[in-house]
Amino acid sequence: MKRKKLLYTVYSALFVGICLVPAVTMPLSKGNESAEKRRLAEAPKITTEDGKLNADFFSQFDTYFSEHFGLRQRLVTLDGELRAELTGTSANADVIVGRDGWLYYAPTADDFMHNNVLSDRAVNNICHNLGLMSEFCSRNDAEFLFFAAPNKNSVYPEYMPYNYKVSSQEGNYDKLVRIIGERRDIYMSAYEGSLSPGGDFDATESFGFLDMREVLRSKKADSPVLLYHMTDTHWNNAGALAARNAVLGSLGGKQFDDYSGIVPTITHERLGDLAEMLYPMRPACDEQFNYAADFGYEYVGRFRGLDDVTIKTACEGADGSLLMYRDSYGEAILPFMAESFASAEFSRTVPYRTDAIASGEAKTVVLEIVERNLGNLQKYAPVMAAPERDISALNVSEAECAKFYEDANLYHHIYGLIDESAELGDMDEIYVTVGGRTFEAFNCFEDKLLGMTETVSDRGFSLYIPKEELSMIPDLNSVTVSIRNNDKER
């Protein structure tokens, strides 16, 4: 009996001891915010800023403890590995466990399966907005090129789990390629027939577009070298170089070294961002290709890292000037691009700033955005002077809409939302008349300014008018918003 009681006592002590380990080791442990991809909870305070008792203290402490308890990273890694090996599932909602050790970013699943596809109107909005940016570049003697960096599962779909089935409907990227082609056909028909559609419609029909998905799929078929990291969201250096060569090859007359004569060394020095989220304590093992190129570019001004919002470079011996709008996919491609231009600016600022274009500093403009974020191109109009139009000969109709105004430094910013009662076709343009002058708007839904961040709409409009062009603050009651129905005209 005494022995049995002793066993119970030892068992209970061990159980309590094990339960106390996370709490006891908590002061020695630090949460890894970079691996979590979010800011971890801070320790709660008993009182609020006004001196009152914090009624949410216990719930806040529960969150804080769950994110900071001792050995957390090791336990998270163990949990991730056990689930992946035993059940083929992920312990993190943002990570998809694929086959043969491949990991994918979960927000790309809809693109892969062709779910929650953008409307034809939304994709036409994207093309329209890119066309306006291209027109702005042309007016300032700059060349414009757009490409979407493909999601990893668009280039390597074969390692996705079997239960992720592709639907029969057209996906966003395929729809984008199709509609770009259709709009170019309209433009070429008008050009070859010596037609001049009113309101300079043809000026926004065509823009420089590079089908990067096709580029990388072809490169993959021709070479056994991996172009993406197995445990990271992004392309590796080999993929970035292939993308850079395709970009420079698409620019008119650009001379460049494609580094085809360099045999890269292979290292396993990277712990992918997806692996960090799933296995934070696992040693770095992802494959990376290192090109022993004698880069001569230098950073201009303050440089902290490749994720800086703005990075400027200079390269002696190179020619041309570049402005590249980019996201995290731009990190690996940046050194190759920087080496190819005498001066370059790489910007992650949203909305896009166009000062370097307007001033003539940038003669080449490249816009890169990852495939999963294509829909963002119908949000947040670029900060640039809206083109003035003559719509007197066009078939336009005034639209009911919600209109708003924002003072934007050197610009008047007018934005809003076309009422659901107004007919709005896939290719319809939106014009804003203010102070007796008419400007063409970007088809952009400014969700943050409208306080509708959880909403998606393809009925938005947004434009910036320089204050030097329109000195007074617009009276929204006198602002007219008109729609040109291009679908009917064609």
Give an overview of the whole structure.
This protein is of the alpha+beta class. It folds into 3 domains: 68 residues, no CATH class; 256 residues, no CATH class; 94 residues, Immunoglobulin-like, CATH 2.60.40. The chain is 31% helix and 18% strand. It contains 14 helices and 17 strands. Strands 3-10-8-9-7-6 form a 6-stranded mixed beta sheet, with helices on both faces. Strands 11-17-14-15 form a 4-stranded antiparallel beta sheet, with no helix packed on it. The longest helix has 23 residues. It is globular. The termini are far apart. About 2% of the residues have low confidence.
What's the multimeric state?
A: single chain
Largest sheet: 6 strands, mixed
Number of E strands: 17
Instruction: Estimate what percentage of residues fall within beta strands.
Output: 15-25%
Structural class of the secondary elements? alpha+beta
Number of domains: 3
Query: Count the helices. How many?
Result: 14
Helix content bin = 25-40%
* Average predicted local confidence, pLDDT: 85
Shape: globular
Distance between the termini: 94 Å
Widest sheet, order of strands:
3-10-8-9-7-6
Q: Rg, please?
A: 27 Å
Low-confidence stretches: 194-203
